[in-house]
C-alpha cells in the first residue's frame, strides 16, 4: 500500500510489499527526503517473524542508489549471509535498530532477471519508481538471502521443463580437406561371427575326437564278426558221357575221339585230367577211362576214379572206398561217398543193380559225380568259376562259339604236357584200322594240311614223334565237331 507519514519528518511516500510466498518477507520502498542533507530514495526488506523497521534512516547527503536491509527483530543487527558492499553511507548513521544503508545485497541466489534473485536469497534493487520486476526488487523461493542482477544474462542449463531454449548442431561444407569433420559410414565388424564359427568348429572336432568309443569286453575271448554280403557264387555244370560226348560249362556240344591224356579242367586252383581211350564197343573211338582230381583247393592231393576194369579208387595212390556203400573223409576237407544213388548223366538203359556212383563233395563249392561202368565212366562236374578256366569243359566265359574241339586244343594244347601230367604214367595210344580208314577217306586236302600243322604245334614233345599220337590228334581236328 502507499501512504505518507507526516509525523516522521519531511514528506515522503512509502510502498510496503507483503510476499507471503517468501516466508513473510516485507519490502518497503521509501521515496522522499530522509534527514538532513537532501532527498533520498531506497528500499528496505525485512524477513523473519517480525518485519519491522525502527528509527529513521538518516543519511548525510542521501543514500546513493542503495537500500536498507533490516534482519531480525526491531532494533537488532542485520542477520543473514554476507552483504555485498557497494552502497555508500554518507553523513549519517543507522538509527535505532542498526539499519545499514548501502548497495544491493547478494545472498547466494542465481540472478536470472535484473532485480530478481532466485535461490536462497532475495535480490533487491532501487528504482526511482515503484515495482518489483524489473528493475524493482524480487524475492527468491526460500528468501534466505536477497540479491540483485549484475551484468548481462548468460544461457544456463536450468533443467528439463524449466527453460525456453533447446540446442541444435549444424555443419557447413567447406571443401575436401578444409574442415575437421567428414561423413564416414559406420563400420560393422564380422569378427564376432567369425570367432563364433571357429569356436563351433573347434567344439565339433573335439566332440568327434573325444567321443567315447563303444566299450570292449575283455571278459570273453569270443569276437563278433559282422556278416558280409557277398554275391552268390554262380555254379555251372559240365557233363561227359559215351565216347566222349561233352556238354561244356557254357552249354557247347563237342567231342574228343582220339586217345591220350587231356585237360578236363585247367586252372590255377582246380586241376582235373582225363584219359580218353577207345573201346571195342566204340570201334576204337575214345571214351573216358579215368579221371584224376588235384590242385590247391584239395591241398594238391590226387583223387583217381576209373572204370570198373581199371581197378580201385585211390587217394594219393592208396585205395579207398573198398566197401560198397562206403564213405571216406578227406584230410583237406570234403568227403567221398560210394553208393548207387544219384541221377545218371547218360539216359540210356542201365541195369540198376550195376550202378556204382562216386560222390566227391570237395572244398570251394566243387562237387563231382562219377558213374563207373565196366570199361568207361560218365561224370558230371559242378563248380563256380575259380580263376581262369579252360579245358575240355570250356573256358566258363558264357560263350559257346569258342568251346569247340579245335579251339580248345589251340588254346591249351592237344594233349597234357609231360611236366603237367597228374597220372603216374602215359597210357598206350591205339589207333584202330577203322579210324585210319575214316581219316584217309574223309580228312584230305586242305583240311588234312591244316590239321597236320596244328597238331605239330599243339602236341608236346616227344608225343608228336609217335605216329598213333599224331593220328589221334588229326582225327580230333577233322571229326571232333561231330556228336
Topology:
Blueprint: E1 2-3, E2 12-19, E3 25-33, E4 39-47, E5 67-71, E6 100-102, E7 110-113, E8 116-118, H1 191-210, E9 235-241, E10 245-247, E11 253-255, E12 260-266, E13 271-278, E14 286-294, E15 303-306, E16 313-315, E17 318-320, E18 326-329, E19 335-339, E20 357-362, E21 366-372, E22 377-384, H2 405-412, H3 433-442, H4 445-458, H5 467-479
Parallel strand pairs: 4-5
Antiparallel strand pairs: 1-2, 2-3, 3-4, 5-6, 7-8, 9-10, 9-22, 10-11, 12-13, 13-14, 14-15, 15-16, 16-17, 18-19, 19-20, 20-21, 21-22
* Amount of beta strand: 15-25%
Tell me the span between the first and last alpha carbons: 161 Å
Radius of gyration: 71 Å
Number of helices: 5
**H/E series:** EEEEEEEEHEEEEEEEEEEEEEEHHHH
The major β-sheet equals:
8 strands, antiparallel
Number of strands: 22
Mean pLDDT: 73
Write out key terms for the chains shown:
483 residues, alpha+beta, six-stranded mixed β-sheet, 5 helices, 22 strands, 25% strand
How do you describe this structure in short?
The chain is 13% helix and 25% strand. The chain is an alpha+beta fold and 483 residues long.
Amino acid at each position: 500500500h502507499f501512504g505518507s507519514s507526516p509525523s516522521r519528518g519531511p514528506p515522503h511516500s512509502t510502498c510496503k510489499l507483503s510476499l507471503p510466498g517468501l516466508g513473510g518477507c516485507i519490502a518497503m520502498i521509501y521515496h522522499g527526503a530522509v534527514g538532513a542533507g537532501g532527498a533520498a530514495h531506497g528500499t528496505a526488506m525485512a524477513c523473519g517473524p517480525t518485519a519491522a523497521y525502527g528509527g529513521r534512516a538518516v543519511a548525510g547527503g542521501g543514500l546513493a542508489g542503495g537500500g536498507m536491509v533490516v534482519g531480525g527483530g526491531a532494533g537488532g543487527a542485520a542477520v543473514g549471509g554476507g552483504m555485498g558492499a557497494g552502497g555508500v553511507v554518507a553523513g549519517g548513521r543507522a538509527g535505532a535498530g542498526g539499519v545499514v544503508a548501502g548497495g544491493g545485497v547478494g545472498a547466494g541466489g542465481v540472478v536470472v532477471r535484473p532485480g530478481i534473485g532466485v535461490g536462497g536469497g532475495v535480490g533487491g534493487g532501487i528504482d526511482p519508481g515503484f515495482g518489483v520486476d524489473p528493475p524493482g526488487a524480487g524475492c527468491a523461493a526460500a528468501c534466505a538471502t536477497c540479491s540483485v542482477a549484475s551484468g548481462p544474462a548468460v544461457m544456463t542449463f536450468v533443467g528439463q521443463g524449466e527453460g525456453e531454449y533447446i540446442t541444435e548442431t549444424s555443419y557447413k561444407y567447406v571443401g575436401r580437406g578444409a574442415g575437421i569433420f567428414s561423413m564416414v559410414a559406420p563400420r560393422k565388424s564380422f569378427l564376432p561371427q567369425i570367432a563364433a564359427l571357429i569356436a563351433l568348429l573347434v567344439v565339433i572336432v573335439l566332440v568327434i575326437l573325444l567321443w567315447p568309443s563303444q566299450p570292449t569286453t575283455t571278459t570273453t575271448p569270443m569276437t563278433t564278426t559282422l556278416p558280409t554280403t557277398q554275391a552268390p557264387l554262380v555254379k555251372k555244370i559240365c557233363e561227359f558221357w559215351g565216347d566222349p560226348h561233352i556238354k561244356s560249362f557254357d552249354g557247347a556240344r563237342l567231342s574228343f575221339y582220339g586217345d591220350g591224356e587231356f585237360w578236363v579242367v585247367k586252372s590255377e586252383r582246380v586241376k582235373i585230367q582225363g584219359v580218353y581211350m577207345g573201346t571195342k564197343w566204340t570201334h576204337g573211338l575214345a571214351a573216358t577211362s579215368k579221371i584224376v582230381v588235384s590242385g590247391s583247393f584239395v591241398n594238391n592231393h590226387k583223387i583217381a576214379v576209373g572204370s570198373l576194369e581199371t581197378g580201385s579208387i585211390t587217394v594219393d595212390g592208396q585205395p579207398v572206398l573198398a566197401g560198397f556203400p562206403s564213405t571216406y573223409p578227406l584230410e583237406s576237407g570234403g568227403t567221398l561217398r560210394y553208393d548207387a544213388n544219384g541221377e545218371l548223366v547218360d539216359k540210356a538203359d542201365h541195369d540198376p543193380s550195376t550202378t556204382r556212383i562216386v560222390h566227391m563233395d570237395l572244398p570251394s563249392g566243387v562237387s563231382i559225380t562219377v558213374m563207373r561202368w565196366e570199361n568207361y565212366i560218365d561224370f558230371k562236374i559242378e563248380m563256380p568259376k575259380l580263376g581262369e578256366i579252360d579245358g575240355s569243359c570250356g573256358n566258363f566265359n558264357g560263350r559257346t562259339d569258342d568251346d569247340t574241339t579245335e579251339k580248345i586244343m589251340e588254346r591249351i594244347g592237344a594233349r597234357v604236357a609231360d611236366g603237367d601230367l597228374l597220372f603216374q604214367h602215359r597210357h598206350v595210344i591205339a589207333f584202330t584200322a577203322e579210324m585210319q580208314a575214316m581219316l584217309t577217306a574223309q580228312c584230305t586236302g586242305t583240311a588234312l594240311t591244316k590239321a597236320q600243322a596244328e597238331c605239330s604245334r599243339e602236341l608236346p614233345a616227344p608225343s608228336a614223334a609217335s605216329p598213333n599220337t599224331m593220328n589221334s590228334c588229326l582225327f580230333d581236328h577233322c571229326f571232333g565237331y561231330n556228336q
